[in-house]
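Reopening: HTH-type transcriptional regulator GltC still failing for me.
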Amino acid sequence: MSDLLFHFTIVRNSYKIRLFQHSRSIVYKGDKRMNIQMLECFVVVSEEKNITSAAQKLFISQPAVSRQIQNLELELKAKLFHRTKPYLTLTATGESVLVQAQEIVNRCKNLKPEFLKQTNNLSGTLKIGFCGNLEYTSLFNCVSAMAEKYPLCKINFSKANMGVLYHDLMKGEYDIVFSPLTGFEDNEQIRTYGIIYAPYVLAVSIHHKFAERDCVSLSELSSEKFITFVRRESKAHSDMLIIDCKKAGFSPDIIAEVGDVYTYLLMIAANQGVALVGENLCEISPCGIIFVPIEEFSERQIVSGAAWIKNRESPICAAFIQELKKLYPQK
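Support: Ran it again with your exact input. Result attached.
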């Protein structure tokens, strides 16, 4: 039994040794594959004509340089140097290889500078705020184009209501915001760029008496109950509703101020009240809402788009605005 165990131990250890040697041979063979370090060593040795000097220039050991040269010769199956003292000289094959090796090494060295030049050396972080789903499509297209052209740039996103976007843009919390532009356009410090232009219409439930109408007059809404956004979130929208109604001879009966667009639309669909909105809300509204034109506002449009502070555009923000204008040229 002991002889058998001893024999098994010998066989097992022998197998381990063979496996280890086989593993080492695989790794060593992989090391001999041509790579940029190998070519760089070859170029430097050809320039220095000495292994020791080349090792010092490359900040690696002398044996490492010798091994790289040997591996390159094995890979090419050719002798590249005449090993005569005191200097190494290139063989005819070595001179031919040197021309191509220098070109490859130089191209690799120039790769990063050329890449940065193509991207205008633009890097940093762009801070974007956006309001709601209506801006998703235009914002998506812009950031996608930006990521392709300026891959070194980082973009941070934050969703907030109109009031917060306006306030934080003025504070410098955002570089640019995507939002309905009502209110933004009135500030001389802010530049705006319209992307979506939607008619100003009346939103009512399909069960409302105006649902079958082709259009309505604003004065006909004097007895209606209105739903609007919370004033602090959309002051300009609330003010516009009050001013328009007063021009028509009445004050609006506002029964609810809501904080998000989905609650807003659900209340209209449930016939809890009516609202004056941009017709582009139909893209996200439930099927229970009808949008009816208003006679007095046949020419008025609600504009959504981008806004940023004048003369405060960072290079990355300026590049983003340029891409935005390419994607959505003004008519």
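Residues 1-30 have pLDDT under 50 and may be disordered. If you still see a failure, please send the error message rather than a screenshot.
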